[in-house]
Amino acid sequence: MAIKIKNAKQIEGIRKSSRLAAECLKYLEEFAVPGNTTEFINQKALEFMTRHKAKSATLGYNGFKGAVCTSPNDVICHGVPGPYELKDGDILNIDATTILNGYYGDTCKMYEIGKVSDDAKDLLKVTRECLRIGMKECFPGNRFGNIGYAISEYAHSKGYSVVYEFCGHGVGLKFHEDPEVSHIAPKNTGKRMRPGMIFTIEPMINVGKARAKVDKSDGWTARTIDGKLSAQYEHTILVTDNGCEALTDVYGDF
């Protein structure tokens, strides 16, 4: 496994793309409301990227048909935009990966559609905290397995399960690079982090069982096996000399 160390020029390019991906998610907030379809949101995302001279990394990727992934309720990830009409009480994940001047930035967040249940709010709160906890493990010399160990310890302590069939990944010069970043892992395992490494942390946290099933109709949409809610937050992370920088956290939420 060869983990690329990015140079200063590459880091700046990835930072700009990451900022744009995050700004796209911010822009989509006004459209994540009851009555809009996930395809409508997809079109708005594509318009935003095109207007900013960027491309979508997901559009056409291995046949994927969306400029973003739209994953409501029991959809864990990779939801294909379509005719699903958002309704009051839904939770929705939108995952955006931009290509700007050849550099990739990858991020996702959850949206509350109308008035959501307290149980849904609790899930979102814990999932956001899982990402924060994972980020605290990002510093030179630490092992990648400690990201997943810390995330899973916290999620399990709150009564939730952690999806293990999907993971974070290196990013920046390509859509998917080494390493794989597991969100559940044994302590003190994996490669050591070094300054200049860039990767995503994107914990997927379920109310019920951890496993996923993929819709046969599109070959992409991954759902919980028990129909219970799932949530996910994601940042593109740069390891620095003394810690890390969340390149997609342009609004200082984390």
Outline the structure in words.
The two termini are 29 Å apart. Strands 1, 2, 4 and 5 form a four-stranded antiparallel sheet that branches. The chain has one domain (8-246): Creatinase/methionine aminopeptidase superfamily (Creatine Amidinohydrolase). The chain has 254 residues and is an alpha+beta fold. The mean pLDDT is 97. Helix 3 (118-136) packs antiparallel against helix 4 (145-157). The protein has helices at residues 8-27, 38-51, 118-136, 145-157; strands at 55-56, 69-72, 75-77, 91-100, 103-112, 161-162, 168-170, 177-181, 198-201, 204-206, 212-214, 222-224, 230-232, 235-239, 244-246. Helices cover 26% and strands 25% of the residues. It has four helices and 15 strands.
Helical proportion? 25-40%
Radius of gyration: 17 Å
As an assembly, this protein is: single chain
The CATH homologous superfamily: Creatinase/methionine aminopeptidase superfamily
Number of separate helices: 4
At the first level of CATH, the class is Alpha Beta
Write a brief structural summary.
The chain has 254 residues and is α+β, with helices and mostly antiparallel strands. It contains four helices and 15 strands. It has one domain (8-246): Creatine Amidinohydrolase, CATH 3.90.230.
Topology, pairings included?
Blueprint: H1 8-27, H2 38-51, E1 55-56, E2 69-72, E3 75-77, E4 91-100, E5 103-112, H3 118-136, H4 145-157, E6 161-162, E7 168-170, E8 177-181, E9 198-201, E10 204-206, E11 212-214, E12 222-224, E13 230-232, E14 235-239, E15 244-246
Antiparallel strand pairs: 1-4, 2-4, 3-12, 4-5, 6-10, 7-8, 9-14, 10-13, 11-12, 14-15
Helix pairs in contact: 3-4
